[in-house]
Specification:
The complex is a heterodimer of chains A (118) and B (108).
Chain A: E1 3-7, E2 10-12, E3 18-25, E4 34-39, E5 45-51, E6 58-60, E7 68-73, E8 78-83, E9 92-99, E10 106-108, E11 112-116
Parallel strand pairs in A: 2-11
Antiparallel strand pairs in A: 1-3, 3-8, 4-5, 4-9, 5-6, 7-8, 9-10, 9-11
Chain B: E1 4-7, E2 10-13, E3 19-25, E4 34-39, E5 46-50, E6 54-55, E7 63-68, E8 71-76, E9 86-91, E10 98-99, E11 103-107
Parallel strand pairs in B: 2-11
Antiparallel strand pairs in B: 1-3, 3-8, 4-5, 4-9, 5-6, 7-8, 9-10, 9-11
The chains are: A mainly beta (118), B mainly beta (108).
Chain lengths: 118, 108
């Protein structure tokens, strides 16, 4: 069964750091690009970052550029999001996602909650 | 980036009625990579439609998607109690992914 499982969320003070993980299973991890998407409480969905198959190309939303770093370890089938200089407005549920080859449908994990609070 | 505009913001309907939700894109994008999700409080978005008109696994056939140019439509033929939720469209055919602001379908 193809699956994405996020972890690493928690409560952090403003200015702090945290690393989220997304463990993949049931498919060939290295053949996919991956995205992080977030949703602040009571708000809509916001794309955060994208990483290429080999990790060499990375793209970020302006709201996180210079503070967040997306990375991957293809040997561990795991995607990461390193978040530094966190702000209250980064509070959100963070989802990892991909587009499945073949059907072309998006596939998301269940999300992990980050709370940035003094 | 591609801007998606959903309308209406809120749709007030009764169970059994038909719902029509709109998502207009600011420009065209590849392969009609447009998805629809619904979301209930405290839950992750659930994929309903992908590729503009293909139903995701396990989604009942009362949900259908269509497209005309850059106008995308989600139709729910007969609303069931579990369908009252917020609906989002998403384009995943161009970077960055973008989302509509959502349409809330509420019980009248």
């Amino acid at each position: 069964q193809e699956q994405l499982v996020e972890s690493g969320g928690g409560v952090v003070q403003p200015g702090g750091s945290l690393r989220l993980s997304c463990a993949a299973s049931g498919f060939t991890f290295s053949t996919y690009r991956f995205h992080w998407v977030r949703q602040a409480p009571g708000k809509g969905l916001e794309w955060v970052a994208l990483i290429s198959y080999d990790g060499n190309d990375k793209y970020y939303a302006d709201s996180v550029k210079g503070r967040f770093t997306i990375s991957r370890d293809n040997s561990k089938n795991t995607l990461y999001l390193q978040m530094d200089s966190l702000r209250v407005e980064d509070t959100a549920v963070y989802y990892c996602a991909r587009v499945t080859i073949g059907s072309g449908s998006p596939s998301w994990g269940q999300g992990t909650l980050l709370i940035v609070s003094p | 980036e591609i801007v998606l505009t959903q309308s209406p913001g809120t749709l007030s309907l009764s169970p059994g009625e038909r719902a029509i939700l709109s998502c207009r894109a600011s420009q065209s994008f590849s392969s009609n990579y447009l998805a629809w999700y619904h979301q209930k409080p405290g839950q992750a978005p659930r994929l309903l439609i992908y590729g503009a008109s293909s139903r995701a696994a396990g989604i009942p056939d009362r949900f259908s998607g269509s497209v005309s140019g850059t106008d995308f439509i989600l139709t729910i033929s007969r609303l069931e109690p579990e369908d009252f939720a917020v609906y989002y469209c998403q384009q995943y055919g161009a970077s960055p992914w973008t989302f509509g602001q959502g349409t809330k379908v509420e019980i009248k």
